[in-house]
């Protein structure tokens, strides 16, 4: 599957309609972003059941700011509307494949429970 350009107009819809979304925050002037792009594109071809989206941080500064993206490229993985991974840096292909495998293996019920417990701990503090 080819990558989807994510904008402030379609971002919420894409994330809401899909259980597994990988998001590449990038910019055209960013050398590491340009080196990571083919790795991201190849992964999108191998994992046609997942949605791969790209956010051009120059064209969509509001999205970058909303997710606290301060360095690009930044890769974010969203499973069932929960950001389960976010890290800056261009990843090599084997590392990206490993991350996808780890994200696929997550027990999302356990993840949500952990988030609820953490929120409860903060509320009680």
Automatic annotation (TrEMBL):
Residues 1-105 form the Thioredoxin domain. It comes from the Bacteria. Keywords: Disulfide bond, Electron transport, Redox-active center, Transport. Pfam families: Thioredoxin. Signal peptide: none annotated. CDD domains: TRX_family (cd02947). The keyword Electron transport applies. SUPFAM superfamilies: Thioredoxin-like. Belongs to the thioredoxin family. NCBIfam families: thioredoxin (TIGR01068). This is Thioredoxin. It comes from Streptomyces coeruleoprunus. The gene is trxA.
């Amino acid at each position: 599957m080819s990558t989807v350009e994510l904008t402030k107009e379609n971002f919420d819809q894409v994330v809401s309609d899909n259980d597994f979304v990988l998001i590449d925050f990038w910019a055209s002037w960013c050398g590491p972003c340009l080196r990571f792009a083919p790795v991201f594109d190849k992964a999108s071809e191998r994992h046609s059941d997942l949605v791969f989206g790209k956010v051009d941080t120059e064209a969509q500064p509001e999205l970058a700011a909303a997710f606290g993206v301060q360095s690009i490229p930044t890769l974010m993985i969203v499973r069932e509307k929960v950001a389960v991974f976010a890290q800056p840096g261009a990843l090599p292909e084997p590392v990206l494949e490993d991350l996808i495998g780890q994200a696929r293996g997550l027990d999302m019920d356990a993840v949500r429970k952990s988030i609820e417990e953490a929120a409860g701990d903060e509320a009680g503090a």
